[in-house]
């Protein structure tokens, strides 16, 4: 699905279609895209009732170069599955949510048995997501994609931007927020020993 006006979307659609058909793809027409457009808000609406019923419903996402997509998808999928052993049933789905000239995003949706203890479910999800995030960094994926790092992914900041990147961001933070009043305690100015959302 290409966004924009008809004039804007027609050319990239035609070019993409030609490339895919050349490489053995089969067109299934507009049906799947139209169905998605019609029902795309259905799954998010189901999330809370599923969680109320004891299911664990969450998502993780990453992005990589085209040549690395199969490797990354396999690694993250296996990492998720390894932490969901014993859950019956556990459903792990993956789709490409955004497409670019150099690569794409991989959006994983996980639905699994959770249980009646919300704290236990949360601990379990932290372990699941930590394993998936480590698989991303170990296999050429990004942990930030278009949602930035945030507190969830802070333990992997060094893998994402390197020490030089961290030093630059700290320098910018010092210059524009010397008093530390902007979003305090969230990233670099986190107090020593403060717990992070995910443990690496």
UniProtKB/TrEMBL annotation:
Coiled-coil portions: none
Alphabetical keyword list: FAD, Flavoprotein, Transferase
E.C. code: 2.5.1.26
Signal peptide region: none
SUPFAM superfamilies per UniProt: FAD-linked oxidases, C-terminal domain
Domain FAD-binding oxidoreductase/transferase type 4 C-terminal: 2-186
UniProt superkingdom: Bacteria
Any one Gene Ontology BP term: lipid biosynthetic process
Molecular functions (GO terms): alkylglycerone-phosphate synthase activity; flavin adenine dinucleotide binding
The protein's name: FAD linked oxidase, C-terminal domain protein
Gene encoding the protein: eapA
């Amino acid at each position: 699905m290409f966004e924009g006006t008809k004039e804007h979307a027609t050319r990239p659609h035609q070019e993409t279609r030609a490339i895919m058909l050349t490489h053995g793809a089969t067109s299934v027409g507009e049906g799947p895209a139209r169905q998605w457009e019609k029902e795309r808000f259905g799954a998010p609406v189901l999330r809370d009732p599923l969680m109320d019923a004891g299911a664990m419903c969450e998502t993780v996402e990453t992005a990589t170069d085209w040549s690395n997509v199969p490797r990354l998808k396999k690694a993250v999928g296996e990492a998720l599955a390894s932490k969901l052993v014993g859950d019956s049933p556990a459903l792990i789905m993956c789709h490409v949510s955004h497409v670019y000239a150099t690569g794409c995003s991989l959006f994983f949706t996980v639905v699994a048995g959770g249980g009646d203890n919300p704290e236990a479910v949360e601990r379990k999800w932290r372990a699941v997501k930590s394993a998936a995030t480590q698989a991303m960094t170990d296999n050429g994926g990004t942990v930030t994609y278009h949602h930035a790092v945030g507190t969830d992914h802070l333990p992997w900041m060094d893998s994402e931007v390197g020490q030089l990147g961290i030093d630059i961001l700290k320098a910018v933070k010092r210059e524009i927020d010397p008093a530390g009043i902007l979003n305090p305690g969230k990233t670099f100015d986190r107090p020593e020993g403060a717990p992070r959302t995910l443990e690496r």
